[in-house]
Design goal:
This protein is α+β, with helices and mostly antiparallel strands. It contains 9 helices and 8 strands. It has a single domain, classed as Aminoglycoside phosphotransferase (APH), C-terminal lobe (Aminoglycoside 3'-phosphotransferase, Chain: A, domain 2, Alpha-Beta Complex), CATH 3.90.1200.10.
């Protein structure tokens, strides 16, 4: 949904490699985000690869000139692995993760948390990743990130996708803003198992860095948790049992804290903040589906929100 991905083989002189090109999408195709800074993604992946053992694909080249391939792009090495699917969601049943043993499922969660913990342990992230600073105003990285997401929503709303529920949720965020925020770390941003290639239930490729940011560590942990909770919510809507014992919030929080020695706080706040961002994504992907003739435009755009009832409950 967020970019074009092309898999290809390259051969030159005595060398050959299996590669991936990531291209910015056509703005006419109802994009998820207002803009796509591929150089930003390229730089963060390159630095993460240099500073950690996190298995990001090796990035080769960034090309800003749209005349070469129709849009800016970067090229990275290709990695083989299994991905917990989004369509149909992995918790709907009959899949490699759903059918795995409890031990293998727990290994997948544990090793994914190892990745997040290592990212958060990068020293001097504000200096090293200064190019990730948000332009929006605010007296903390959290405030600037919230302002950035609000600007993202305002852009979507101006395109005929305004949501009273999302606006109420922003009001809830303001009313429940944490009095204190923890240390700033490098946040992956889209920290979910659907953005990881696994082999033997261990990460071998950590993908999709377009939402990378500087902020409190709770941003990534809440995102990891909510990414599963939303699939559980959708599964329940179809009368499916889902995976209720997988990636439970108390278990994930406790495991992260044990790894890092850092206590997490205000997880309800960060859960709502995550849910708002998912709701904005659902607005844009719903409108994108209308654009491509996959569905009709509803009378109420909130019908696009797969987490509508869930978000209603979260803000109470």
């Amino acid at each position: 949904m967020s970019s074009e991905t092309i898999l290809f083989d390259a051969t030159w002189r005595d060398n050959a490699e299996r590669l991936v090109a990531r291209l910015a999408p056509d703005p006419a195709d109802v994009t998820v985000f207002p803009s796509y800074d591929l150089e930003r993604q390229f730089r963060v992946m390159k630095l993460v690869g240099e500073l950690t053992s996190v298995p990001v694909p090796h990035v080769h080249w960034y090309e800003p000139d749209a005349s070469v391939a129709g849009s800016p792009f970067f090229v990275m090495s290709r990695i083989d692995g299994e991905v917990p699917p989004d369509v149909m969601p992995y918790n709907f049943g009959d899949g490699w993760l759903y059918d795995a043993s409890r031990e293998d499922q727990e290994r997948l969660v544990a090793t994914t948390l190892d990745v997040i913990a290592e990212l958060h342990a990068i020293d001097a992230p504000v200096d090293r990743f200064a190019f990730l600073e948000r332009d929006e105003p605010g007296d903390s990285h959290l405030r600037r990130n919230v302002a950035h997401v609000r600007a993202w929503y305002d852009w979507a709303a101006a395109d005929g996708l305004s949501s009273a529920l999302i606006e109420r949720a922003f009001d809830w965020l303001e009313a429940h803003r944490p009095a204190a925020v923890g240390t700033t770390v490098l946040c992956w941003g889209d920290a979910r198992i659907g953005n990881v290639l696994y082999r033997d239930f261990r990460p071998v490729g950590v993908l999709d860095w377009e939402m990378a940011t500087l902020g409190p560590r709770e941003l990534d942990v809440a995102w990891l948790i909510y990414a599963h909770e939303i699939f559980e919510h959708i599964a329940a809507g179809y009368g499916l049992g889902g995976m209720p014992d997988f990636m439970r919030r108390p278990d994930v929080v406790a495991a992260y804290e044990a790894r890092t020695g850092h206590a997490l706080s205000n997880m309800d706040f960060y859960g709502v903040y995550t849910a708002i961002q998912y709701a904005i994504v659902f607005l844009r992907t719903g409108a994108r589906g209308v654009h491509f003739g996959e569905r009709e435009m509803p009378d109420d755009v909130e019908e696009f929100l797969y987490n509508r009832d869930q978000l209603e409950r979260m803000i109470g």
